[in-house]
Amino acid sequence: MRNNIDIYADNMMLPVEQLKAKKLQQSVIDRILRLRDIHAYMLRNPLKKDREYVDYIVYNAASLGNGGEITRRTAYADLEILHSIVGSLEKCSKEWHRWRLNNMIMEGYRMAVNKQDPEAIAKLANVYGKYNQLDKNDEKDARYEEIPQIKFTFDATVLGLKPIPNVANVINQLIKKYSGSNYEEIDADADVIDATVVEEPKKLEVKDEQ
User: Fold this and answer.
1) HSE on the CB side for 115, CA within 13 Å?
2) Distance (Å, whole) CA 100 – CA 82
3) CB–CB of 78/36 below 8 Å?
């Protein structure tokens, strides 16, 4: 995409004062404000079409940021950026809410640092750690020790079958018995099979009596 999505994604939750403190361009700040506004509108009206969202952006752009008007092309670009950040509204999942909550926590953390409030900093750091489960060890991909061991055997008794005495000798006898079979005899046997030809039924003609 032509625009730097990371800039908008990283600054979506920041207040205007912090956006200006980061020395972002006014056009970037204006777009961030539009993205917030249209996202809030989409949450209130999830069944509208993209062209309706674009109409809303164009109509309300003058009341946001530096109050400048925008074209529909710019509004469509805004919508494209917003979809890239939060995904399609219909497919919005917990991942977006997790991302949003983490941003809210980090926003509060930055405010606590600016105010030099150690108690708030400690609380927010604790919330962030617990929410992201940083206090827990990562699970292993596979616990191989729990996989049951499979042992292969040729012992038929494990299936409840009686073993054949001198099984090797039995196998040799069967091989000698059937290895000399002449498969060409199958064709000869097939010749003695009577083939019954079924004649097609004759059509019954009905003549009118004169």
Assistant:
1) 11
2) 13
3) no
CB 59 within 8 Å of CB 70 = no
Helix (H, G, I), strand (E, B) or coil at 56: helix
Q: pLDDT: is 6 or 188 the higher one?
A: 6
Structure-block tokens of residue 73: 């092309």
* 135 contacts: CB under 8 Å, gap ≥ 6: 129
Residue 195 is predicted with a pLDDT of 44
Q: What gap in Å lies between CA 61 and CA 34, rounded to an integer?
A: 7
Q: Please give the Cα distance from 170 to 162 (Å, whole number).
A: 15
Helix axes 26-44, 72-86, angle to 10 degrees: 70
- Which one is predicted more confidently, 23 or 161? 23
146: which 2 tokens?
């729990």
In the chain, alpha helices (H): 5-11, 16-21, 26-44, 50-60, 72-86, 94-114, 118-131, 167-179, 185-191
With H, G, I as helix, E, B as strand and everything else as coil, classify residue 91. helix
Per the CB < 8 A criterion, the answer to whether 62 and 51 are in contact is no
pLDDT in tens, 112-154: 888 888 888 888 888 888 888 777 776 555 565 666 677 777 6
| 198 pLDDT higher than 50 | no
Mean pLDDT across the chain: 75
